[in-house]
Amino acid sequence: MPEKQIDRPGTDKGLSRRKLLTAGVAAGGALATGAVSAKAASTPDPLITEIQDWNRYLGDGVDANPYGMPSEFEKNVVRRDVAWLTADSKSSINFTPLHELDGIITPNGLCFERHHGGVAEINPVDHRLMINGLVDKPLVFTMEDLKRFPRENRVYFLECAANSGMEWRGAQLNGCQFTHGMVHNVMYTGIPLKHILNEAGVKASAKWLLPEGADASAMTRSLPIEKAMDDCLVAFKMNGEALRPEQGYPVRLVVPGWEGNMWIKWLRRIELGDAPWHQREETSKYTDLMANGKARRFTWEMDVKSVITNPSPQAPITHGKGQTVVTGVAWSGAGKIKRVDVSIDGGRNWKTARIDGPSLSKSIHRFYYDFEWDGSELFLQSRAIDEVGNVQPTKNELRAARGVNSIYHNNGIQTWHVKADGSAENVEIS
Ligand code: MTE
Ligand code: CO
User: If DSSP codes are grouped into helix, strand and coil, which group holds residue 37?
Assistant: First the structure.
């Protein structure tokens, strides 16, 4: 940090930090213990021996940040896009900076965004949700009406079906933010969709729902009634506060474990019918072209998947050899993660990683693998196994089963090549 001139009322005006310093005082006990080697206390460290500005002068008052923002030193922790992905200068996809996060919750301002018609700006007072089609009485709800239903709090991951879609034909993007960042994990507060449907009265012939967005894309997807009656939520809060406009403010559909495209944002209407509608997003898009030229359809559930977030190309090892924390995230649309294995030699040998933090169904799990790095190159991989026994496949296993024409549902094992200098690169093991 450049030397800063302090000029605050009530303090020594313009006093430079340096002037306050007395020459090298030794000692000051090393705080760290155990295997992690902190610097020996014999070399005087001015950050210990000298009083710093932030320790000497009064800081900002509470009026500086009515809505709190991260430290200025975290300004690089942002969603980013990939320039060539969208032809337009106005990008419609950005990615969660997974390599900068820990724990299981994605902070609201860092949740990746995907919108097909831009962000709709809706005053909640003007928002309506209509239920029509095969119901006893079509209903229109205001946001106030919705908030009178009993609500639930649930943590779920949302993964775009196209996450890792650029990696089908080989390693391409350098960073887990770009290869895996179309996922976020949020605690939603919402109303079980079944309460709203029951209020309208579902006719026996109703087998499908068509939720529709109020944005310019009027996004629509066919959703089977069993899922709607099972665990879907009509959510209006994320991580305790109102949904962000980017995430569908004032209200979005939550479809746990299923592809992100079905989680209709700015939810304005749900039609009930006796057959799927075969909308654009379930015919031309979000279908999986196989090697034989046929396409899989209605592949709703997201497969078991994991990725090491540190170290990774955007987060190299900078501390040299010795004790090293490898960490990452794992999730499955089928339920909880049972186990995550980590390999440092490209999948020849596997060790069980430590899962830490809440283990919730259809939610991101955090794993750690703590080991002594000897400074030699690594081929880091992680492999997740979910509670129903699904095992994350290698990329070659996936290609053997599905060809290379797919865009969606790529859950193959990721490899990071960590070099002796600690830098990392996206590679594949053939
Ligand atoms: N809903 C509407 N109304 N419009 C959209 O463009 N995009 C979908 C889905 N719901 C979309 C939408 C897609 S493809 C995904 S992956 C998720 O929203 C992204 O949700 P997020 O922006 O909260 O990450
Ligand atoms: Co998507």
Answer: coil
Å from CA of 292 to ligand 2 middle: 25
* Nearest protein CA to atom 5 of ligand 1, as residue: 115
Which of 296, 329, 363 terminates a domain? The answer is 296
Strand order in the sheet with 378-386: 351-352, 337-343, 378-386, 415-418, 424-427
Residue 244 lies in a domain: yes
Ligand 1 pocket check for 79: Cβ under 6 Å: no
Instruction: Check if 247 has its Cβ closer than 6 Å to any atom of ligand 1.
Output: yes
**Ligand 1 near 214 CB (within 6 A):** no
Q: Is residue 267 part of a domain?
A: yes
179 pocket-lining for ligand 1 (C-beta < 6 Å): no
Surrounding ion ligand 2 within 5 Å at CB are 114, 160, 260-261
Domain that holds residue 276: 108-296
Residues 2, 8, 14, 19, Cα dihedral to 10°: -70
Q: What is the CATH number of the domain that holds 419?
A: 2.60.40.650
Query: Residue 255 is part of a domain; what is its CATH number?
Result: 3.90.420.10
- Ligand 1 in reach of 217 Cβ (< 6 A): yes
- Do residues 288 and 402 make contact, with C-beta atoms less than 8 angstroms apart? yes
In a domain, 74, yes or no: no
Q: Tens digit of pLDDT per residue, the chain (430 long)?
A: 333 333 333 333 333 333 333 233 333 323 333 456 666 777 889 999 999 999 999 999 998 899 999 999 999 999 999 877 776 667 799 999 999 999 999 999 999 999 999 999 999 999 999 999 999 999 999 999 999 999 999 999 999 999 999 999 999 999 999 999 999 999 999 999 999 999 999 999 999 999 999 999 999 999 999 999 999 999 999 999 999 999 999 999 999 999 999 999 999 999 999 999 999 999 989 998 998 999 999 999 999 999 999 999 999 999 999 999 999 999 999 999 999 999 999 999 999 999 999 999 999 999 999 999 999 999 999 999 999 999 999 999 999 999 998 899 999 999 999 999 999 999 999 8
**CA-based torsion, 241, 245, 249, 252: positive or negative:** negative
User: Which residue lies with its CA nearest to atom 2 of ligand 1?
Assistant: 265
Q: Which helix (H) or strand (E) holds 179?
A: helix 176-180
Residue 40 lies in a domain: no
> Do the bridges between strand 223-224 and strand 152-159 make them parallel or antiparallel, or are there none, so unpaired?
unpaired
Give distance in angstroms: CA of 113 to centre of ligand 2.
9
Looking from the CA of residue 159, the nearest atom of ligand 1 is 16
Same domain for 150 and 181 = yes
